[in-house]
Specification:
The structure is a homodimer. The first copy, chain A, contains ten helices and twelve strands. Chain A is an alpha/beta fold. Chain A is globular.
């Protein structure tokens, strides 16, 4: 009998990750740099064609940067919409892949994809309300409430909340083309690079950049705790490769909350409350694969 | 046959509202000033005893200020916990009412109660994801996601998010005893009174207080839109009695979002997106009654 497999694509601002398989232990995967929509999507399609010979590719899930149109009744369902990313605005990514591979295609945000991956296979197993944040070139957030992915009128865009801007220590105006000094404008990798004139990986761990970064992220995380009251917060993304950043966030979140939220999960074990993704960089593509497996369910 | 009725209590920082009945059209109600826990709870119990003779009081729902312990497995379930309100910390309101009336008692936050009331009878009918904010002496927020009330690790405490403090126009440091200039610290009725030296009802509608107030609330509302992506936001509470405040909020939210959220619900009809409670001041107590009616359901 032909082996039944699923496809997952994580489309990121800097790279595409594609995988074919059924579980994290049974995956063929590849990744490549995101370029133009046509070129990047063609590479993805070639990967799926080359790796599903003699197999039945049942569906493809996409976990994508956005904003996305996720309204199935909309004429632009499955489009990437107002992204500031060059040439990716108003791209019908679902249709482009569906028309070339002729299998059902489902899409959600990159962070919702990663959240689903972590709930099934990673750091959010057994939880029904949690947040997944990514802090890299950009900042995004998604998650689950009542064990279902967060959607709504559109979908969360947590990277664009506003937090207090520490003008005294940080005269940088912020880099969000829409909002200037929203969270992404102040605390994304791009903001760090523009503020300090070098890429974040090159900033030594005792550079004041990291204290400032941890402060902004802690402010945002406190807001998310007050707004959603999650059972856990998972933070992935390139900037979190700096191990000191996570512990600075732990300290600052507890400090910012000032004991108002009386929960031992926060006051006694913050290091198990705010955690890295257990699937690491694979959370997104594994989640995309899960989206494909559940294409006929409401999640 | 004995008429079957339910009881609802909205416990607010300034007043208690109690009702007996089955629907908003079939209610006996009363209200009185909140004083000490013992005295206020006794008045509520007397009201229910006096108004349920020859009737079957099936359950009581409480929509209360908080923070509350809503974890049914906790030894302090049904307690008001870390409130800064005099003498109301660590009060077991559920147990005090249950032991005197001997009927099942259920509790949720005042704003979740009001949200439920609005979903069943008011401005959120047919919606499955929306927010209910109250802006009065304090600020609180709750709502529904996937048609279920927002809970989580504890419950939302949206009044305590942080937003940019407009130091240039507003040197006032904020009045939250925990956080200083969080949303409640900057934009509650108490903050207005302390900042301007008179109660908000006495500030004329062309006073700069209202522009500042609208700006802070719009900032918070934008954050809620980015975080939860609700289909609608309902705002009740004493400060919203000023009709100009709502229209200033409408203008400022659209301006703050800068076209990033591409939804006609926001860009074309903000006055139907951010609205007053259709039940007015009764949202909370009607919601409390609904909590009682659904005491055996997960909501």
């Amino acid at each position: 009998m032909t082996e039944k497999v699923y496809g997952g694509i994580e489309t990121g601002g800097t790279k595409f990750v594609c995988a074919v398989g059924t579980t994290p232990d049974n995956l063929i995967k590849t990744q490549f740099t995101t370029t133009t929509p046509d070129e990047s999507i063609k590479k993805a399609i070639d990967f799926f064609k080359n790796n599903t010979r003699h197999k039945q590719l049942s569906a493809i899930g996409i976990a994508s940067f956005g904003p996305l149109d996720l309204d199935k009744n909309s004429p632009t369902y499955g489009y990437i919409t107002t992204t500031p990313k060059d040439s990716w605005s108003d791209i019908s990514i679902v249709e482009k892949i569906h028309s070339r591979l002729n299998v059902p295609v489902v899409i959600d945000t990159d962070v919702n994809g990663a959240a689903l991956g972590e709930q099934v296979w990673g750091a959010a197993r057994g939880l029904d309300i949690f947040i997944y944040l990514t802090v890299g070139t950009g900042i995004g957030g998604g998650g689950m409430v009542n064990s279902r992915l967060m959607h709504g009128l559109l979908h969360p865009e947590m990277g664009h909340i506003r937090i207090p801007h520490d003008w005294q220590r940080d005269p940088y105006r912020g880099c969000c083309p829409y909002h200037g000094d929203c969270l992404e404008g102040l605390a994304s990798g791009k903001a760090m690079e523009l503020r300090w004139g070098q890429s974040p990986e090159k900033l030594p761990s005792n550079h004041p950049a990291w204290e400032l970064e941890a402060g902004y992220l802690a402010s945002a995380i406190s807001n998310l705790i007050y707004t959603i009251s999650p059972q856990r917060i998972i933070i992935g993304g390139g900037l979190m490769k700096n191990p000191d950043l996570m512990s600075a966030i732990h300290r600052k979140v507890v400090k910012d909350l000032k004991g108002y939220i009386r929960s031992e999960a926060i006051t006694e074990s913050i290091d198990r409350y705010i955690v890295a993704p257990a699937l690491g960089d694979l959370a997104g593509v594994v989640g995309a694969l899960e989206l494909a497996k559940r294409i006929n369910q409401e999640i």
